[in-house]
Amino acid sequence: MTVTASPPRVTEEKAATTAEKRRNPLRYAVLAALLVLLLLMIAPLLVVALNAVKSPSDYASHGPLSWPAHLYWDGIVTFWNRVDFGHKLWNSFITSIVVAVLGVLLSILNAYALGIGKVKGRVWFLVFFLVANLLPQEVLVYPLYYLSKQVGLYDNLISIVIIFTVIQSAFGTYLLTSVYAEFPGELLDAASVDGAGRWRTLWRVVVPVSRPTLGVLFTFFFIWTWNEFFLPLVFLISNDKQTVPVALGVLQGDRLMDATTTSASALIGIVPAMLFFVIFQRTLTRGITAGAIK
Fold first, then answer.
1. CATH classification of 83-253, choosing from 2.60.40.1180, 1.10.3720.10, 2.40.30.170, 1.20.140.10?
2. What's the CA gap between 211 and 217, in Å, rounded?
């Protein structure tokens, strides 16, 4: 049996690299700084979670930073029943998922025309989408309010879906256009040689290749729409049409809400978005690193 030994130079280089990593104190300093930042970010969430399962008497006796004497679930149950949170949760979910899907589809179509189709005046279109994405919602609220009143969509989830689909797709179009402008021409030429038209090339070639980026857009569109507060507060005035952020904001001034119930409302309001982010975390990672390695 023949045993092949590693070249001495390669072994020495590996040993030197390992020793250098062990001696480098900067790695530990960066790790410590990241741990401190992580603790600063999750500390408010931990305080909210502690107070959400703490009784009002326990909160009054020991303060917000103490460990609960026993788990107290009545605050969560009280808030859930008081605002019919299950219905608010469904409103937020259906609105966010529809906006995410429609926003991605509209972004694909716009970016395909601007990035690959090379339509005339594409630069001005990109400037328009960029400006539309930078406009504050306070500027848009009155014309959108007036239009929704005229078409009979005021106090309707459809109006929120339409508004946020357009807003989110403005960002998606700007991002995807830069991606599609660098799309490999060899793939498009091969599809053209095979007899594929523009529509088939889009759905059979372009979309599968750009799936990681589309996954990132879908996740961001969902979370952004879920967290929106101002426009849903203006357009959804009926109690049965409100979304989760609106329900939480309306109840912040309720004098019947004690500190523990308020913490419970904050906790169950952010948990769905956090779960969605955790579920699609791998999709985000693949999308962000898609162009880093060929």
1. 1.10.3720.10
2. 10
